[in-house]
Protein backbone atom coordinates (compact mmCIF):
# COMPACT_ATOMS: atom_id res chain seq x y z
CA UNK A 1 0.00 0.00 0.00
CA UNK A 2 1.68 3.22 -1.12
CA UNK A 3 -0.17 5.95 0.78
CA UNK A 4 0.28 8.31 3.71
CA UNK A 5 -3.15 7.27 5.02
CA UNK A 6 -3.23 3.46 4.88
CA UNK A 7 -6.29 1.49 5.94
CA UNK A 8 -5.64 -2.03 7.19
CA UNK A 9 -9.02 -3.20 8.53
CA UNK A 10 -7.33 -6.19 10.12
CA UNK A 11 -8.94 -8.39 12.74
CA UNK A 12 -6.48 -10.01 15.16
CA UNK A 13 -7.31 -12.37 18.01
CA UNK A 14 -5.04 -12.61 21.06
CA UNK A 15 -5.18 -14.50 24.31
CA UNK A 16 -4.50 -12.02 27.11
CA UNK A 17 -4.35 -12.54 30.85
CA UNK A 18 -5.29 -10.25 33.76
CA UNK A 19 -1.60 -9.89 34.67
CA UNK A 20 -0.89 -8.40 31.21
CA UNK A 21 -0.91 -4.62 31.57
CA UNK A 22 -0.14 -3.12 28.13
CA UNK A 23 -0.46 -3.99 24.46
CA UNK A 24 2.14 -2.43 22.16
CA UNK A 25 1.75 -1.56 18.47
CA UNK A 26 4.71 -1.26 16.10
CA UNK A 27 4.27 0.24 12.63
CA UNK A 28 6.90 -0.56 9.99
CA UNK A 29 7.49 0.81 6.52
CA UNK A 30 6.72 -1.34 3.48
CA UNK A 31 10.15 -1.31 1.81
CA UNK A 32 11.20 -4.43 0.01
CA UNK A 33 14.10 -5.72 2.07
CA UNK A 34 14.74 -4.20 5.49
CA UNK A 35 11.71 -3.10 7.43
CA UNK A 36 12.21 0.14 9.37
CA UNK A 37 10.24 0.88 12.52
CA UNK A 38 8.29 4.07 11.86
CA UNK A 39 6.11 4.50 14.95
CA UNK A 40 5.02 2.71 18.12
CA UNK A 41 1.96 3.02 20.32
CA UNK A 42 0.42 1.32 23.33
CA UNK A 43 -2.85 0.81 25.16
CA UNK A 44 -3.15 0.13 28.89
CA UNK A 45 -5.18 -3.06 29.19
CA UNK A 46 -6.67 -1.99 32.53
CA UNK A 47 -9.16 0.12 30.56
CA UNK A 48 -10.10 -2.91 28.45
CA UNK A 49 -10.46 -5.17 31.50
CA UNK A 50 -12.56 -2.58 33.38
CA UNK A 51 -14.91 -1.71 30.49
CA UNK A 52 -14.78 -4.95 28.51
CA UNK A 53 -13.88 -2.96 25.40
CA UNK A 54 -11.68 -0.22 23.96
CA UNK A 55 -12.46 2.01 20.97
CA UNK A 56 -10.21 5.01 20.48
CA UNK A 57 -7.42 6.58 18.42
CA UNK A 58 -3.93 5.70 19.70
CA UNK A 59 -1.30 8.37 19.11
CA UNK A 60 1.96 7.15 17.61
CA UNK A 61 4.99 9.33 18.41
CA UNK A 62 7.37 9.84 15.48
CA UNK A 63 10.52 7.73 15.12
CA UNK A 64 13.45 7.85 12.70
CA UNK A 65 13.72 11.64 13.10
CA UNK A 66 10.41 12.09 11.28
CA UNK A 67 8.49 15.23 12.15
CA UNK A 68 5.15 13.65 11.28
CA UNK A 69 3.30 11.69 13.92
CA UNK A 70 0.34 9.48 13.30
CA UNK A 71 -2.43 7.63 15.02
CA UNK A 72 -4.25 4.36 14.57
CA UNK A 73 -7.85 3.54 15.39
CA UNK A 74 -7.94 0.55 17.73
CA UNK A 75 -11.02 -1.39 18.76
CA UNK A 76 -10.76 -4.21 21.32
CA UNK A 77 -13.44 -6.39 22.89
CA UNK A 78 -13.11 -9.02 25.60
CA UNK A 79 -14.87 -12.29 24.92
From TrEMBL:
It comes from the Eukaryota. InterPro entries: C2_dom, C2_domain_sf. Pfam families: C2. SUPFAM superfamilies: C2 domain (Calcium/lipid-binding domain, CaLB). Residues 1-58 form the C2 domain. This is C2 domain-containing protein. It comes from Rotaria magnacalcarata. The lineage of its organism: Eukaryota, Metazoa, Spiralia, Gnathifera, Rotifera.
